[in-house]
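TODO from last week: model Ribosomal RNA-processing protein 40.
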Amino acid sequence: MSSIVLPGERVPAQHVNLKLGPGLLQLSSLQGPVKGSNSQLIASTRAGTLNHSTNKSKWWVEGNSRRYVPAPQESVIGVVTGRSGEGWRVDIGSAHPASLDGLAFEGATKRNKPNLKVGSLLYARVSLAHKDMEPELECFDAQTRKAEGFGELKGGFVTQCSLQMSRLMLDPKHFLLPLLGSRFPLEAAVGMNGKIWVSTKETKQTIAVVRCIEKVDPDGGGLDEVGVKKFLSKLEI
């Protein structure tokens, strides 16, 4: 069950393979662990709702912040804004632009690198995020070194949503994408930075997807599955 936490509050996050998400910080050895205890001290860095995965291996704080704060291993959608040495600078909606190395793609070599241009749309993963450094991106799965869907996004349409909505859409149990996919062919990429890319065969289907995302977004209408079905019936999709 979720609970409300404030900045600096201790969080009872413990697991063999513990992974901390946005809003949580593991204190240094000078600050913890507590003497006589083998557990690390975890504290919240912002106010919000404390959440964790079913097996309690992943913990994060869900807030209503408007600006995306990068965290390692999060998927994001960004736009290339320019070249930077052997790589590119990418706008992911955070306080600072992210850097993407030319070799951070599946099968990329010094002689064989993607030909990205300013304005290119990317689906990437945050490989490094630190408050004192610019975030770094990679376009492959860190474990398999395969693209796994990451890379340049061609065609389609990008819509903006709240950070909370993007996290809801990444939940396999969320109803929206399966519901829409049962009505017409649909491709989608969800970034945790509040950007969602969708690609359909017809323009009216793309419009329907965007409208549904706006309706379901907690910052918008907050419609449930029944409400979305009624809304779709009016659109005759």
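Done. Residues 30-38 have pLDDT under 50 and may be disordered.
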